[in-house]
Amino acid sequence: METVSKTFDAVEMSRRLREQTGRKLWSMTPVQRRAYLNDATERYRSEIRSRNKRQTVAFR
Questions:
Q1: DSSP notation for 16-51
Q2: Is the pTM of this model over 0.85?
Q3: Could you give the CA distance from residue 43 to residue 29 in angstroms, rounded to a whole number?
Q4: Are 22 and 36 in contact (CB under 8 A)?
Q5: Domain presence at residue 13
Q6: Which residues contact 36 (CB under 8 A, 6 or more apart)?
Q7: 40 in a domain, yes or no?
Q8: Between helices 30-59 and 10-26, what is the axis angle to 10°?
Q9: Could you tell me if residue 34 is inside a domain?
Q10: Which residue segment(s) compose the domain that 47 sits in?
């Protein structure tokens, strides 16, 4: 059986994203950090809501 090399390494990508996010947040003041995280949370929630609406419409 021939081994296939991965084109995407999820562990490496996760580590890289955590490091980038950490550097970005570290450079912010606590107030800026809170605002940024609240905004990111709201963007994530609205994306989930719109995705759920599209799936609901598709099943009708």
A1: HHHHHHHHHHHTS-HHHHHHHHHHHHHHHHHHHHHH
A2: no
A3: 21
A4: no
A5: no
A6: 25, 28
A7: yes
A8: 140
A9: yes
A10: 29-60
Give the type of residue at 43: R
**How many domains is the chain partitioned into structurally?**
1
> Tokens 């570290």 label which residue?
26
Amino acid sitting at position 32: Q
Domain assignment present for residue 1? The answer is: no
Tokens of 34: 């809170």
Q: What is the pLDDT of residue 51?
A: 86
* pLDDT exceeds 60 at position 10: yes
pLDDT digits (tens, 9 = 90+) for 17-46: 999 999 999 999 999 999 999 999 999 999
For CA atoms 9, 15, 18, 20, give the dihedral sign: negative
